[in-house]
Amino acid sequence: MPKTLLSLIAAIIIAPVMIAAIIIPPIMVVLGSAGQSCAQTNTQRAQRPAQVRVQEEPCWQKAGISKDVIDQRQAIELDTRSQVQAVCADSSLTDPQKKQKIHEIRQESKQKVSGLMTEQQQQDLQSCQKERAANHPAPAGVHHGGGGPCGNLASPGENNAGAPQNPGEQNQPQQ
């Protein structure tokens, strides 16, 4: 084989290797620094306090209450809200009559719920819920209460007719 042919073959084989040797190191440096950057970012994230919301054990579970009891409690509360809405919508009742009827409905509901769990379980549940409410305040613009269950029964003696505004709002289940 002539020398020129051998030189040509060598040039064809060696040229890509040499080009790769020239091009690849800067790319590796760039990729390497990007990898370091990602590693630094991950390290920084690991050092920051986690802002991921950890799923807490439900208060009813902490209080030793079964899921079945909680389901029954929610059904009672849903029925209570429905009854309160019906009272609010009853135009034949005066405001004082509505207040009295709603009071009776809530008392009955409270008795039903108290029959589902022990006094200690109720206290533990309420304590857990209050603690969590204090640690997780409601977002801006969210408020509860005000205006009474029918939206117009806030003070006795007033006689404002109107449709219900968030009936039974104070009696929503918390878990």
Tag the structure with descriptive keywords.
single chain; mainly alpha; elongated
Structural class, please?
A: mainly alpha
Order of helices and strands: HHHHH
Mean of all residue-level pLDDT scores: 74
What's the gyration radius in Å?
Answer: 35 Å
What's the oligomerization state?
Answer: single chain
Task: Provide a count of the helices.
Answer: 5
Using the alpha-carbon principal axes, give the shape: elongated
Largest sheet: none
- Measured between the Cα atoms of the first and last residue, the distance is 88 Å
Give the beta-strand count: 0
Low-confidence stretches: 155-175
Strand content: under 5%
Helix content: 55-70%
What does this structure look like?
The chain has 175 residues and is mostly helical. It has a domain of 77 residues. Helices cover 62% and strands 0% of the residues. The protein contains five helices and no strands. The longest helix has 45 residues. It starts with a helix and ends in a 40-residue tail after the last helix. The C terminus is likely disordered.
Give a nutshell description of this structure:
The protein is mainly α.
Task: Indicate the topology.
Layout: H1 3-47, H2 59-62, H3 67-89, H4 95-114, H5 119-135
Helix pairs in contact: 3-4
